[in-house]
Amino acid sequence: AGDPAAAWMFVEDALASSFTPAEVQLEIILPAMRSVGEKWASGEMGIAEEHLATAVARRCVSRLSPRFHRRGLTRGTVVVAMGPGEWHQLGAEILADLLRGENFRVLFLGANTPPEAVSLALERAGDPVACCLAAMVSVDSLVAVTEVVGASHPDTPLIVGGAAVASEGQAKELGGTHFGADLPSTVELVVSLA
């Protein structure tokens, strides 16, 4: 309905009824956005409604984000980005939060990230645990990033995933070293690499 206050009240009710912040993101927000995407694709919803729903969902994710930060020493740094031309970043934002919840320092570069920016972030990370790249619409944008990152940081695990990446074989064809099948398994993979 495009009502951020009502959406946040729903999130607060879920948190009060024993949902964790991660469960809110994975079991409420993401399924709602999948439904929005399906309705948009089938013509049941217009582009304005889809953008409105996305804006409300992003506000809720942003408000939940501080609940994932942990104090103390981290397990290491992870870079999370989307390639050039990729604008659907909600899943990557949630991945960044889930990784923070596992006590990683996350450099979240967001949507439409130039390959050189990903490489620079990895340099600043020092000894990064992994680089996670997401493709939601087209895998074409990932190839430029994986080529630059692979050349400049060949020892850094490069996890490729998102709705546009269907399999481990495809992730490797795109230049990834690992496949992020979904958000929880990507977090588990990063934890195993730390």
The percent range for strand residues is 5-15%
Q: How many helices in DSSP terms?
A: 8
Give the class from helix and strand content and strand pairing. Answer: alpha/beta
Mean pLDDT: 92
The rounded distance between the terminal residues' Cα atoms is 41 Å
Unreliable spans:
none
Rg computed from alpha carbons, rounded to a whole number of angstroms? 17 Å
Q: Overall 3D geometry?
A: globular
Series of H and E elements: HHHEHEHEHEHEH
Spatial order of the strands in the main sheet?
2-1-3-4-5
The description of the largest β-sheet is:
5 strands, parallel
Helix content: 40-55%
How many individual β-strands? Answer: 5
Structure explained in plain terms:
The chain is an alpha/beta fold and 194 residues long. It is built from eight helices and five strands, in the order H-H-H-E-H-E-H-E-H-E-H-E-H. Strands 2-1-3-4-5 form a five-stranded parallel sheet, sandwiched between helices. Helix 2 (21-42) runs antiparallel to helix 4 (90-101). The N and C termini lie far apart (41 Å).
Write the layout of secondary structure elements.
Layout: H1 4-16, H2 21-42, H3 47-64, E1 77-82, H4 90-101, E2 105-110, H5 115-125, E3 130-134, H6 140-152, E4 158-161, H7 168-173, E5 178-180, H8 183-193
Parallel strand pairs: 1-2, 1-3, 3-4, 4-5
Helix pairs in contact: 1-3, 2-3, 2-4, 4-8, 5-6
Task: Report a brief summary of the structure.
By secondary structure, the chain is an alpha/beta fold. It contains 8 helices and 5 strands, in the order H-H-H-E-H-E-H-E-H-E-H-E-H. The N and C termini lie far apart (41 Å).
